[in-house]
User: Fold these one by one.
Assistant:
Number 1:
Amino acid sequence: MDSDVIIVGAGPIGGYLGKSLSDNKIKVIQIEEHLEIGRPFQCAGLVTPSAMDKVGLHDTTLTDVWGARMHAPNGSSIEIGSPSRIREHVVCRKRFDEAVVRQGVDSGVQLLLGTQIIDAVLHDDHISVTIRNESGEHKLRTRLLCGADGAHSWVRRHARLGKPPETMIGFQVEAIGYPGLDGILDMYTGFNIAPGLFSWVIPNGDTHRIGIWVRSKDVDERSCEMLYDYLTKSSQFTERFSDIQEVARYCGPVPAGVLKRTTKERIALFGDAAAICKPTTGGGIGPGFEQVDLMLPNLIKALNKDDLSESNLRRIERKIDSIRKHHRRARQLRDLFLTEVDDAELNDIFDVFAKPEVLELINELGDIERPVPLGLRLLKDVPEFRKMALKATWSILTGA
């Protein structure tokens, strides 16, 4: 056997998975189709404090975010957060990704860059994997194949594990010249800016990351580039963008909702490949690390016993049902407060948010990682939102 595990993809989730397995004396080969880690860059680069603590890579942080200015369609705004509590670390994704993968290599992971997987055949006691790189095609035998190969996962498609329940499109520009505030990100809403979701401007050291993310079904014939052009050139916020100069552009899918099945016999999916991104922000690093941590102990036992049957991996997969449940409720609350309301309703929601007692509640309970408790309190405690509570399903209110 060439390895116990082959991991396809060397992003942060694949890197964290590789290190976690190798630390437990599992022989790991990790393959990455690109010649560089962290390229192409397709992420806002936000890492929550809890996720950062798992890898200890604070030196990759460009700036810290403690608050947000949220702008309604009519131009009104609220500011939330406090400098005393860091909400997100904005990292250099190339340095962060490289460092996470390096931790795995230092632990014993064999990393193959510039290498593609082109076939995988299941046998009774292993999977035969065919890879291709500059030296030609090679066959490797492994006991478990893990797909951490992103939104377009080859492993997911090859194993026929279905499509993500929800896919958003993310578009981002890195630019200089935006008059932002230190430690604060801006969020812009409205049908003409980001129908159903929002646009963001994230401080990034000497630059800002200006992004749009939307569900593909909400944009009609408009592209993310057209929405970006409207925000920066035609909206009531145009003056803020008048002096920006673009440095780079990126675009990519954001899969969310968690696949119904993320495992098959001798196959498991992780991170974006498993559609693990948060439906409220699109963040995938924190949930991806959490998925690895939840599945790892039983996965180690299964590897040591060579019990990688479909039924046993399905039992191991149930460990992430808590993520599924939380993301489902978060998506339902997102729909109530943002995605399924029109601009007039959204303006009314912002008016309620601006009330001192509601702002106090938001600052007390607001958590990017765990938005559900705040959403439930808003529905239950704020009189103006009780009509929304009537629309809420039983599963939102009870978690059933």
Note: Residues 30 and 221 are 40 Å apart (CA to CA).
Number 2:
Amino acid sequence: MPILARMLPAPLTMEVRRGAIAQLGTLLADSRVATSGRVAVAVGVGQGDRIAEVIAPSLGEAKVLRVADGTVDAAVSLGADLRKGNYEAVIGVGGGRTIDATKYAASLAGIPMVAVATNLSHDGICSPVASLVYEGGKGSFGVPMPLAIMVDLEFVHDAPPSLVRSGIGDVLSNLSAIDDWQLGNVERGEPIDGLAISMSRTSAEAVLGRQDSIESDAFLTVLAEALILSGMSMVIAGSSRPASGGDHEILHAVDQLFPGTSNHGELAGIGAAFCYFLREDAHRLGQVTDCLRRHGLPVVPGDVGLTTDQFTAAVMLAPSTRPGRYTILEHLRLSEPEVRARVEDYVRAVGS
């Protein structure tokens, strides 16, 4: 009897604990990563240089390359350096911008990438997507997922708390994204992937009800694992669908209209909560807003300095940021006055 199965890509290794980067040298000795040991280390601003110093003794003659920022230009420049150096692999050390730039650069150079995360700001740690800034705004680019992932909790504890909280908002927004995907299935017959949905929902639910804080190793471990699972759900789905719905459309619109307003996860959290308000799902809205508040995340537009008119403009623009994606925003097709009224009602309902 024939056996049918599908092969699921996954990282060679995943380490989430204090002292994880001490194993980096052992990982890179694996011939599946680099046969000759010719490896580059890409570091960003912040803790990148510090970690590069810590891991240098175990990396031999690895070359340290600087990543200026999270722009397409910086990623392309890094990719050119990787090609010129004939490296077999690159280690991206830093936060979300550095890892995304390194992922894109590695794809341009055609070599594997190992992610060493110094904060937990979003699910790009393991996702097949790189979010990069370019002249016209911010875009998402398809890339291979990292070959291996390390999260050292000692460095995460040293990261700005706002960046760690951002990861909470990003993973919570998966719940809204899943509901949008299922809505697309019901209304438009869009195929859904049950395994991807299960992984995405599991990652969000793991964080949703926890009562401990980002000061706890136990919480940070769960958050890191949740973000990695979220990224893998996108690999399985072949798109960002299980982790990006109307919530992310709103955040991308805010980024376009009012750049620098807030970070990715904070805007994703607000977007998810607002989408649940639009769905009139009071139970899930309460769960999401309670979790956001418990961890000191913004809940209403005013919390990140946006007026009602500005947030209304973002919601109106949101569907155009992901053409063809069907979410609660496309389903309701509200006019500008209707959106403004919903935004005002949302603020009254949850702003206290």
Note: The CA atoms of residues 308 and 343 lie 7 Å apart.
Number 3:
Amino acid sequence: MLGFEHIELDEALGHQYELETRRIRVAVKPAYLDDQSDPEDDRYVWSYTVTIENRGAEPVQLLSRYWNIMDGAGRVQEVRSPGVVGVQPMIAPGESFQYTSGCPLETASGTMSGHYQMRSASGESFEAEIPAFLLESPYERRQIH
């Protein structure tokens, strides 16, 4: 089961999901992109903005990412790649790095979760968890259980 550790609702921006691992705070804000989606063609697209904040005492570098993407039909896609949006940012203490990316699905809803492989300035490698977050659209069928 996915753990939605900390969720904030901001009326202007939608849900924000947050999780802190080893003094690295990862916050994600997904948004449904109606203008890039085509429900009649089973194409639903979301953007997500990620903020990675270093709350620790030493610089860290983001080396790679891992995503687990599950669509509304339960199909899972795993994505592994170096860096994010073409970079492997170094994040100083008290600083943050922000980027926006996107995710297309063939269903009107889904979830994403994962982690970043990080390395501290002292050479220690660790995973900074990305909070599980929902990809919701206006076309999602609501079911009551």
Note: The chain has one domain: 6-133.
